[in-house]
Amino acid sequence: MFSSRLTASTEVNRITRRLRELRAAGRPILDLTESNPTRAGIEYPAEEIAGLLADPRALTYEPEPAGLPPAREAVAAYYAERGEQVDASRILLTASTSEGYAYLFKLLANPGDEVLAPRPSYPLFEFLASLEAVRVVQYPLLYDGAWAIDCEALEHAITPCTRAIVVVNPNNPTGSFLKAGELEQLLRLCRRCDLAIISDEVFSDYTFGDDPRRVRTLANTEGVVTFSLSGLSKIAGLPQIKLGWMIVNGPREVFERMEFIADTYLSVSTPVQWAAAGLLALRPAIHSQIQRRVRANFDRLRAAFGAQSAIRVLNVEGGWYATLQVPRTRNEEDWTLALLDDGVLAQPGFFYDFEAEAFLVVSLLTPEAIFADGIGRIGRLSE
User: Fold this and answer.
1) Domain limits for position 308
2) Is residue 154 a contact partner of residue 165, using CB atoms and an 8 Å limit?
């Protein structure tokens, strides 16, 4: 009786079962997977946020498919602060980047068509694509001290059914940014094969160090239809206030078709649109807390697992996550279960489609005391 789009299994895996058993038994768990800033000890200006959401203009419903002009202008101002001139007429608001992906798969692909997405990466793409009857084909990221797109493999993955290439910039969980040389190759491929680029840039404000080769955004890319996605969830640490957006590069017809899809749903709430400028003005104070947290935890991680350690910390350029290569004395599932029995929750690499064993992924957003205790237990388990 159910649609074939619902391909995800509802079966609970061993890790989730064990976690539920331990929590039901009252066992304390050091959660090194915490990615929700509202539950990670970040301080928020609660009264100001509540006041912004109480704007009386929100009592009037003004359905605008692309979003209310003041909200779109506020997003354009955010990009201007980062040195990117983006006309508000190219910005389309969504309730989230996930919804943005759903709109884009509707726009670009017929049932059975394909989009290319990176591996390893966040597993959400396959679920979102399957709900639109679209197939995800993965292209590999390679690691040799730094992450890079395997451009040759990506090119070989293109078929007559391919409609778009997804890049995550910086990628989750590898924390790797797109480089200028990689972008040049992507643009050549997309022009030749008539493909669009979907660039997920939700973590682009969180960086470690500088690199002149780094591409921070595709907001002003020319010659290829490109969609740059972001939102309040990450850049302002406000996942509970649902506002995302995409910047559309391409012929005006592309934007008009996106408006038609958005007009079908009209999902973005009026209160958050009127609050957008004020919420973005609060972003620096929230962002700075998160940036300090993730940098401090990453420094702690590298200090704990140095050159003499059996655990290797993979290079990270940005984002909220770090990847540990752990000894292959056990597989990733057994590593994760053993850590759970020691009171630590981490994610196995196979959650993100790492090709080889054995990797663990941890969130650098974790409160520092919990993070320090948790990685100490990981180190002891590797001895």
Assistant:
1) 14-42+284-381
2) yes
